[in-house]
Design goal:
The complex is a heterodimer of chains A (about 325) and B (about 280). In chain A, about 75% of the residues lie in helices and about 0% in strands. By secondary structure, chain A is an all-alpha fold. In chain A, helix 15 crosses helix 16. In chain B, helix 2 runs parallel beside helix 10, helix 5 crosses helix 8 and helix 8 packs antiparallel against helix 10. The longest helix of chain B has about 35 residues. Chain B is built from 11 helices and no strands. Chain B starts with 7 loop residues before the first helix and ends with a helix. Chain B has about 280 residues and is mainly α. Classes of the chains: A mainly alpha (about 325), B mainly alpha (about 280). The interface between A and B is large, with 58 and 43 residues.
Chain lengths: ~325, ~280
């Protein structure tokens, strides 16, 4: 897992680090290269979207929607500059992206970027609670998976296997059936209150919990008979102290790295969960816009999600290196 | 593990998968076309063991009175075609790219691996949603799309193994004795790459069946009335309170398929040691 993050960063690493430059400079250069690379990818993604919309038949028809009158079609065509050559359109599109101008929503008439950004905070809340839960539950589960008795290990292991095999949307429906339909404890859908956050978080976190647990168990197994643990035990530290103070911290970098790498999986999951629970985040906004054929909003949502992923990757990579110097050393 | 009798950990999941495939593709023919038709008089009938069940509708009916057994099996045709097809495509693409990157190295390697890293960093479902929205969602489109969703893992595994095999003494010796690249790849690299990729293929099937499910659950998979496990579940969600069986059967099928695909992967990995460590490192279980 760590390898994923480390590998995902560094075109500069293959070149020999120039002599005389400090670690600071190298780090800045590496982060810069990584940012540029990811932003270029983002641009590529938007470009792909641009050409797909243009090439799949009449874009004005797509953009204006199936119920548009011929006059409306003409207006859209002129408004978008669709009578110009494709490359000129593409240049204009790139200019708009750089100026963060994604046009206005076909339906609400509001700024597409504003619509996408407005939906982002709710998704961030969901992602943060999911990460907290997956760590808070995953680490103890991992300890049980490694240190528990035979029965505990079997039970936890089986639940983790199940947790990884049940798709998020199936799990979400199961939760709705159980807690909303049968027990009536929680609202089945909506957003804004704490109660509406519980089931989406559970649905999204389950897979991450299982991954965290497996990772923690694997790390614990790896350090099991290392000298420093024996030394700690010989000094008179309790079993519990040896586990929590000495053994477990070894797993933290891997867990943290997984959280960064998995941000893209988590966002994919969040899209499904938000639609299922009618939770007003950017994922639901995206799917709604797709069904409404509101392409400016679709492009803005993809852009915002992409930028968010880039930021998490770049910042996360920096944090990981601060957290675990071994990563930086391994690549140097 | 395999000394005595048959290895259940391998043959049980394999058997269940084969059975599922046969049932999905042969079953609807045996049940006849009539069962899949709408019958508004038979809406929302429960499974056979509950009061109010209708004869010949063992798993109940959906909101249009269609037989759930037939619908679930028909839905499986799409989900399995897309899942297995795309996993196969992904592994083939991944093996070619991985061999190029790992065996020839150089700038090919750098470009391919950079592409893989970048591709992984972006949320695939978001890309897939946007693409499906624009180009539509026939089965071939979905297969191509999900091939794009799964190519990174086999590429990485193949590359790592190819890189390792290439520097083994016996390969270096063979190359020194004048063996051609093609010979070396065919004779020494492929035999180690293939089993590892079969393991990866198995895991990928599970992952892609889930993604296909998610896409069609969101309404962006195959178009109704064509069934797929994901869109049956989506159709059944409003009836959760009164007719849980609409959601239950396709959901169960997805879970069983994924568990079996993962179990098969694990069993194969235990069986052939070639590349097991590489896979362990790449697939966080």
């Amino acid at each position: 897992m760590t390898e994923g993050v480390v590998a995902s960063v560094d075109p500069g690493a293959t070149a020999p680090p120039s002599a005389g430059r400090g670690r600071r400079g190298r780090r800045a250069r590496r982060l810069g290269a990584m940012t540029v690379r990811l932003l270029l990818t983002l641009l590529g993604l938007l470009t792909l979207l641009f050409f797909l919309v243009r090439l799949s038949g009449d874009p004005a028809g797509v953009l204006a929607g199936p119920s548009a009158t011929p006059q409306q079609l003409e207006a859209v065509r002129a408004g978008l500059g669709l009578d110009e050559p494709l490359l000129a359109q593409y240049a204009a599109f790139l200019g708009d992206v750089v100026r963060l101008d994604f046009g206005t929503s076909v339906f609400s008439g509001e700024s597409a970027l504003g619509t996408a950004l407005g939906a982002l905070p709710a998704t961030l809340v969901l992602l943060v609670t999911t990460m907290l839960v997956s760590v808070a539950v995953g680490i103890p589960c991992g300890v049980l998976l490694d240190r528990g008795g035979r029965v505990t290990r079997a039970v936890v292991g089986t639940s983790m296997t199940l947790a990884q095999a049940v798709p998020t949307f199936v799990l979400g429906i199961l939760l709705i059936y159980l807690f909303a339909v049968r027990l009536g404890w929680l609202p089945a859908f909506g957003s804004g209150t704490a109660a509406t956050l519980v089931m989406p978080t559970l649905a999204l976190a389950t897979f991450a919990i299982a991954r965290t647990a497996r990772m923690v168990a694997a790390e614990l197994e790896q350090v099991e008979d290392q000298d420093f643990l024996r030394t700690a035990a010989a000094k008179g530290a309790s079993t519990r102290r040896v586990l929590w103070r000495h053994a477990l911290p070894n797993a933290f970098p891997a867990v943290a790295a997984a959280l960064v790498v998995e941000i893209s999986y988590l966002i994919s999951g969040a899209v499904v969960v938000e639609v299922l629970f009618a939770y007003d985040g950017i994922g639901k906004e995206l799917v709604d816009a797709i069904f409404a054929r509101d392409y400016p909003v679709v492009q803005a949502c993809v852009f915002v999600i992409g930028v968010f992923v880039v930021v998490v990757n770049v910042v996360g990579d920096g944090l990981l290196r601060a957290l675990d110097p071994r990563i930086a050393r391994a690549r140097a | 593990m395999r000394r005595r009798g048959i290895d259940l950990r391998l043959w049980v999941p394999l058997g269940v998968l084969v059975l599922t495939i046969v049932a999905c593709f042969v079953g609807p023919m045996l049940l006849g076309p009539e069962a899949g038709q709408q019958a508004l008089g038979e809406r929302l009938a429960p499974p056979a063991w509950l009061p109010g069940a209708i004869d010949g509708r063992p798993l109940g009916t959906d909101a249009f009175g269609r037989d759930m057994l037939t619908r679930t099996l028909e839905g499986g045709q799409v989900s399995l075609q897309v899942g297995f097809g795309a996993a196969t495509g992904a592994v083939l693409v991944g093996m070619v790219l991985g061999l190029v990157a790992g065996y020839w190295g150089g700038w090919c390697d750098r470009v391919i691996m950079a592409g893989a890293d970048i591709w992984l960093a972006f949320p695939f479902l978001v890309i897939a949603l946007a693409a499906v929205a624009v180009v539509g969602s026939d089965i071939p489109v979905l297969i191509v799309l999900l091939t794009l969703g799964g190519w990174v893992l086999p590429t990485r595994v193949t590359r790592t193994i190819a890189l390792r095999v290439r520097s083994e003494d016996y390969v270096v010796a063979a190359a020194g004795a004048g063996a051609s690249d093609l010979y070396l790849v065919r004779r020494h690299v492929l035999p180690q790459v293939l089993p590892a990729n079969l393991v990866v293929w198995s895991f990928t099937v599970g992952a892609l069946v889930v993604i296909e499910g998610a896409l069609s659950f969101l309404g962006l998979g195959v178009k109704p009335p064509t069934a797929s496990w994901g869109n049956i579940i989506a159709d059944g969600t409003p009836y959760l309170q009164t007719a849980w069986w609409i959601v239950a059967w396709p959901a169960l099928m997805i879970v069983v398929t994924v568990i079996c695909a993962n179990a098969l992967g694990n069993a194969l990995r235990g069986r052939w040691n070639a590349g097991a460590d590489v896979i362990d490192k790449e697939v966080v279980p």
